[in-house]
Amino acid sequence: MMTRLETRRAFAASEIARTAMALFAERGFHAVTVEEIAEAAEISPRTFFRYFPAKEDVVLLEQRRMQERLVDAFTARPTEEPPITALRNAYLATSDVPANRRKAVLQHNRVRLDVPAILARGYGEDVFGNDAIVDALASRMGVDSVHDSRPAIAAAVMAAAAATAFDRWLRTTGRGNPADAVGVALAMVESGLRSMDTPSD
């Protein structure tokens, strides 16, 4: 559970990001300066940089929070659920977008897709940067993530499949629930990873 200070900081970051994303959607990412974001959010540029190292981090905020939710969803899965199955179900839960939020999700992520550098950075963080999910997966598998590469491999494969499916949903129809597309993608790779559900000798 977050402290009161952490909650206030998270709320402030969300408000700055909401303002920035509206400007990006209206004028394009590269056409908006930090100074303009700060003015619209009624803060100073210095305050902006207390929350975000750069403009790119504003766009990646929601993705990073989704990664945190993924870890929470995974650790909350029933203990009797096999590791790979639990990770799949965590992805399905966190990629579920209610119909009344899909327009906002599309708008937010279209900004990310329109800037190749942000897209590449976000993909790298999704696939290779989520050490917390690797450690949680290793714990459920009963192995050491430092000496056993299987949790990192499984996490990277599942993340790549989920991220690709989600981005395809954004780029193509944007209709329906992205969790359905993610579920299809994970089913393609899950059978190959199921051997990891059985502890090694």
From TrEMBL:
Domain spans labelled HTH tetR-type: 10-70
Alphabetical list of InterPro entries matching this protein: DNA-bd_HTH_TetR-type_CS (IPR023772), Homeodomain-like_sf (IPR009057), HTH-type_TetR-like_transc_reg (IPR050109), HTH_TetR (IPR001647), MftR_C (IPR041347)
GO molecular function: DNA-binding transcription factor activity; transcription cis-regulatory region binding
Assigned keywords, A-Z: DNA-binding, Transcription, Transcription regulation
Pfam families listed in its UniProt record: TetR_C_14 (PF17754), TetR_N (PF00440)
Protein name in the entry: Unannotated protein
The organism of origin for this protein: freshwater metagenome
